[in-house]
Each structure stands twice: as structure tokens, then as C-alpha cells.
Amino acid sequence: MTRLMLIVGTLFTIGLSAAAQSPSKRFGIGTPATPEQIAALDIDVRPDGTGLPAGSGTVRDGAPVYAEKCAACHGANGEGGTADVLVGAEPKNSAPFGPEYERWRGTRPDVPFTIGNYWPYATTLFDYVRRAMPATAPGSLNADETYALVAWLLAKNEIIAESDVMNRDTLPRVRMPARSRFVPDNRRGGAEVR
Amino acid sequence: MKTKDRQSRGVTRRTALTTLSAAAALTLTPDLVSGQEAAPADTTKRWGRLPNTLGARSPAENPRRLPIPTSSRTPLQDLHGTITPSDLHYERHHGGVAVVDPVTYRLMVHGMVDRPLTFTLQDLKRFPATTRTCFLECAGNYNGQREELTPQEICGLTSQSEWTGVMLSTVFNEVGAQPRATWFLAEGQDAAVMTRSIPLKDAIGEAMLAYAQNGEALRPEQGYPVRLLLPGLEGNASVKWLRRIELADQPFMTREETSKYTDPLADGTAREFSLVIDARSVITSPSYPQTIQKGFVELRGIAWSGRGLIRRVEISTDGGHTWKPATLQQPVLPKAVTCFRYAWEWDGRPTEIVSRAVDETGYVQPEMSAIQRVRGRRTRYHLNPVTGWTIGADGRVRFAVQRVRA
To answer: Which CATH number does the domain A43-181 belong to among 1.10.150.20, 1.10.760.10, 1.10.1040.10, 3.40.50.300?
Structure first.
């Protein structure tokens, strides 16, 4: 039985990889992308910091940028409004779900999901703010403004100190409280509800 | 060419004149052209409108999406069969509908590839094409707070189309995807510059770059001119207005795969990249706000699973005490909407009608209580609970809200 399943499994895998590679024929369609063309579009930032630009920002620099560009939708202190809540350090060094949280909460109202208690990577903040924010002028912030905003948001969430400076070296080193919570999808179909 | 055009225009004009004079002899009115008149008492006593360039629904039919600023829902209760009319396909945007010029459109594919390339829309259409029918569903497709809810309000963020495009594997072969590449980033050119990381092993067999939907070019709100299409996976990953694909050996951890679209669980962990849509069903008729009559009632609905085929749909007409199989409309397609029907005689007594889907992996659509046992109170996405409708003694149909209450 096991051997049969192994054989079937192997055949299936071969079938899959054949499908992945077929058709092996190249058609000569498309135009080479130049390094300049790639650089113009390649704005993503990865957890290890790849893609972060030069520049820097402090918490102090971030305050006026936040007040001018973000507060109208996210609230004066990141408490939320027409757009998401951004600031919330509670539960400190924990997350807003799970058994530990339920014990901590007791009979208090739920706390919202925030940068401080749910976002697993600080680099994601830079990537997202630079590509999509503010909603009234997406993609309009320069690198320094973005670093400053990210610094302000991380400080308000009690993740970095008020004196910390964010740049391409420091930002990837910021450890987010919820980082260790995230696990790969373990659903596999079948009878079990996961 | 000019002469030919003139000739064909001449012929068209002559034909039109001839037809119109014939019609005039039959009492010509402007309604013959517009066709927007109310139905006459006897349709056999007067000509209808003449053929025209673009059809329209009967003025008596008025299906509508249900919009809020970030999404609009498909009127599931108004549909028949498995295909969602393109103008009723659900929408979920993060930066509005991008308006993209198909002439200047480019898709760039780079990263861990031997030959980074850009493709025009015409380039993509030159590749061997393929056509596939499948559903798309938003990961946040659940609403069940009160009795007065229609299928559209409960789970209208799901729709189905026949899509045409080029297989992603064909394009990856063209650029020479490197063996070390295990993920790719898909990026849109909307105001959100939407980005998702997709594991190659889950996507490469079936992923498509789609440029057509239900026989015509994509609708603007579905990503015109080109979107990624990932059958069976949560809709957000099928990035619209696709401008860039970057191959890599790890995920990029964008906002939409970390702070959003992840599943906090009861044990304190949070599931990420939970892309597959688990099996689900809903009875679309009868449903709120209908009232039914005693006697024969055909229960009708749809079921779907991101893991493959719907194997069966079970119906209970006694609030979940006993279950019987519904009839599935053939052909049943993998990762596609499956219509089910069940002949029922309502005896006039109050009850609850319920459906649950079973897919080819043996997965049984769970009760909300079973989902919450595993995922806890604060789970937000991928909710697919068994749902039903209560039938009152007066025949009024309401969403069975007690079934989904924790």
C-alpha cells in the first residue's frame, strides 16, 4: 500500500514538474528589460532590507509629516478614524489573540490589531507607506519622509526609542513583537477543520 | 480600402433604408429602434425593434452589485447557472479602479530569471492561449450578523467567469525562471500598487495571465488589460492591472500578506499565506427576503472549493438533524462553482433549511462553532461556515443567524 502510494506520488510529482516546464519551447516574444527600466519599477523592500533606499528619518522629523499627511484618516495619534488604527502597544510583548491574550484581557474590551501588536516586519511599513500612502497622494513621499514616518509609527508603538534613527541599516534590525507568532499555512484539505 | 468602406457603408445604408421602409409600412415608431418601450398588450401585433450593435438586459430585470467604498457584491440570488455576468462580478479594490492604456501597457518579468523581459499586451496574446472556468473569492467574504441578510450580503464577494490568457508557466519559460526561484511577487499598477508574494509550487501548474473574461477583454474593474489568475486561491492574490512580476527565493512580506489576509488562531499563532479557499456552499433560493408557499419548493444554490471538485452537497430541511444529497449540475469542474438543486415539499411548519459542501479531499464545510474552536474569537478571514435559512409558519425566509453565533 505504502509502496503504491509512493509510486503514485512520484508519478504525480513528475507530472507536476513536467507541467511546470512545458512548453519547453521558447517563442522569442518580449523585449529585454534594461537595468534602468527594472530599477524604475522595482520598489519593493524585503525583510532583510533589500530594496531600502539611502536616506534617514527621526521620530521628531516624522511627527509633522504624520500630522500633515496621515492624521486626517488615521487620527492625531494613530488611534484610527476613517482608516485603520495604527498605534497600540498593548498587550505589551504579546498579541491581540490567543490564550495569553484572553487571560490578560479578562473582562476588558478587545484591543484593535495594530502595527505594535500584529505587524511582523518593520520593513513592510516602509514598503507600504512609500508605495501606497497617503491615500490622497499615493507614492508621493520621498525616502527621508518615509523613514521619518516609519520611525514615528514605531516609536508610538513603543518598539523603538524616541531617539532612534531609521535608515537602510537600522530598519531591518527592528524586531517586531508579533514576529514569532506567524506560522505557515497548515491546512491540507481532508476531514480536519483547521 | 476607401472604396470598399464607402461601398459597405452604402450597402448598410441601403439595407437600413429598405428595412425601415418595410417597417414604416407596418407603422414605424421610434420604439423599433430603441426597444425601451414597455411590453405591449399583444407582441404578435407589432414589430419589435430591429437588430442593433449592443444588447441590453430586459428593462424588467435589474440585478445590481451592492457597493461600499472598497468592494461591491455579486447578487447571487438573482443568478442562474455558474457564470457571473461580467458586469456583476464582485469587486474588491485597494486603490480604486486603475484606468490603463492598452497601447502603452507593459508587463515586466525579472528577478531570478535568465532573461528579464517586458511584454506588451499584443506580446502576451501571441503566446499559446488557454481558457479556464473558475471562481474567484475575496478572503473576507463573510457577513452574518442578523436575520435580514440576502445571499449577496452574506457571501457576495464570490463570482465565476470563463477566463482566457497565457499560462504563467509559458511566460516563466520564456524568461528562463531559475531553479532557485521558489516565490514570485505580483504587482499591480493601481493606486495601491498592490503586491502579493506567491509560492511557485502552489501556482505554477494553473496560474494564468488573463486578458479576457467571458468572451471579451477584461472589465476595467477586473484588471484590464491583464491580471494574474490563480484558480482556487484567495482573490487578493490574483493581482489586477499587473505590471511587474519578480522571481525570488523567499516571500517579500508585503502588507497584504502580513498585517492583512493572515489568520490569528486560538493557540496564539497566526497563519500566513493561507491562500487556498476551503469548500463552501450557500442556498440562494429560497432566501431572504422571499416568502414561500406550502408544497413543492426547489432548493437551489452554489458550492465551490479551492482544492478541486465539489464531491457532494448535503441538504437538511430539519435544521441539521438529517442530511440528504442534493443533485449536482454536470459538468462539475475543479475550483469552479457547482450548482446544486434539491426537490422539497414544504409542509407549512416552521423549520430551517441548511446546505453543506464536501470536496474531493473529503473536507466537509464546517459549522462556525468548529471554525472558532480552532481559530478563536478574533479570526477575520477565510470564514466558510455552514449557513441556513429559517422558514417561518408564514413562509417568510430569514438568515439562520443562530447557527453562526459563537
So the answer is: 1.10.760.10
CB atoms within 10 A of CB B57: 10
Determine the Cα–Cα distance for residues A133 and A110; give it in Å rounded to an integer: 27
- Residue B191 and residue A132: Cβ atoms within 8 Å? yes
- Bin B201: left if φ > 0, else alpha if -120 < ψ < 50, else beta: alpha
Tell me which of A34, A185, A186, A192 to substitute to probe the interface with B (most B C-beta atoms closer than 10 Å): A185
Residue type, B390: T
Chain B residue numbers touching A119 (CB-CB < 8 A): 258-259
Q: Cell match 533606499: residue?
A: A53
Section B97-109 average pLDDT: 98
B12 exposed, middle or buried (CB, 10 Å; 0-12, 13-18, 19+)?
Answer: exposed
Pick the CATH number of B69-252 from 3.90.420.10, 3.40.50.880, 1.10.287.3510, 2.40.50.100: 3.90.420.10
Residue B343 CA from chain centroid, whole number: 27
Question: The pTM is what?
Answer: 0.90
Render pLDDT for B61-70 as a digit per residue (tens, 0 to 9): 999 999 999 9
Which residues, 6+ apart, have CB-to-CB distance to A107 below 8 Å? none
Mean pLDDT, all residues of chain B: 93
Indicate the domain borders of chain B. 69-252, 280-404
Q: Is the dihedral of CA A175, A178, A181, A187 positive or negative?
A: negative
pLDDT per position as a tens digit, B387-396: 999 999 999 9
As a whole number, mean pLDDT of residues B373-386 equals 96
What distances in angstroms separate CA B282 from CA B255, B307, B308, one per listed residue?
31, 18, 18
- For domain B280-404, give its CATH number from 3.40.50.2000, 2.60.120.560, 2.60.40.650, 2.60.120.260: 2.60.40.650
A-B Cβ pairs (cutoff 8 Å, strict): 186
**All three cell numbers of A156:** 508610538
* Confidence band for A25, pLDDT divided at 50, 70 and 90: confident
Residue with cell 485597494: B94
Residue B363 DSSP class = -
Task: Tell me the three state secondary structure of residue A144.
Answer: helix
Distance in Å, alpha carbon of B338 to nearest chain A alpha carbon: 18
Report the residue of chain B nearest A111, measured CA to CA. B378
- At CA A122, angle to CA A116 and CA A124, rounded to 5? 110
pLDDT of residue A5: 47
Show the 3-state SS of B248-262. Answer: ECCCCCCHHHCCCCC
